[in-house]
Amino acid sequence: QAYLSYSNVAALTHLARKPGWDITRTLDNVKIWTHEEGAVLSFKVEMQVKVPSHVAFSLLSDFRLRQRWDRHFLTCEVLQAVSDEEKIYHVTAPPATGHKPRDFVILVSQRQPCKPQEPYMVAVRSVTLRAVPPSPEFCRSEILCAGFQIHSSGGSSCTVCYFNQVTAGVMPYLAANLSGSSKSIEDTALECIKFLE
Asked: The START domain covers which part of the protein (predicted)?
């Protein structure tokens, strides 16, 4: 478990630092970037939020609050509180056209910064839990690496960056968005900002 937690946070840090991000869309307070490497597509959504970074961190690290702003989350329950900083959740998501609803078993690792210039982190990856085997009513999907980095930009505001490394399982949701107007990603980002503020 310690290794999984460490590698979860390390993978998000590594993804955030990769060179070669291309900006695909800019709104007033949202920027969307993509990064392609072989068959893996990653995207980054950068949001300017008018709340202190520690407030954004506490709201984003509790995934049970995610349904309030992310319509891709139908249900979310804590399966196991591994420690103060690690929780395992079971999440269900609505079906993409012509598919079964999807579900995920994810490890969420939260970290406060050790130094002032470092971001708060909420890292996410799929894990296997014997107690929750795949169920026939859902299509069990996998998150390789996702999560939030929250950078303070002064006392009462912060920059929230959401990262996701996209696998084939998540592609049906994103293919249309990324090729078109990135509308769903954009709408979700604006809902997130509204929720945090």
From this structure: 16-190
pTM of the model: 0.90
How many other C-beta atoms can be found within 10 angstroms of the C-beta atom of residue 53? 23
Task: Specify the DSSP element, H or E, that contains 59.
Answer: helix 53-61
Give the CATH number of the domain where residue 52 resides: 3.30.530.20
- Following CA atoms 114, 115, 119, 125 in sequence, which dihedral angle do they give, to the nearest 10 degrees? -30
List the domain range (segments joined by +) for residue 138. Answer: 1-196
**For the chain, how many structural domains are there in total?**
1
Task: Give the residue from 3, 39, 44 showing the smallest Cα distance to 20.
Answer: 44
Q: How far apart are the first and last CA of the chain?
A: 34
Per-residue pLDDT of 123-139, as tens digits, reads: 999 999 999 999 999 98
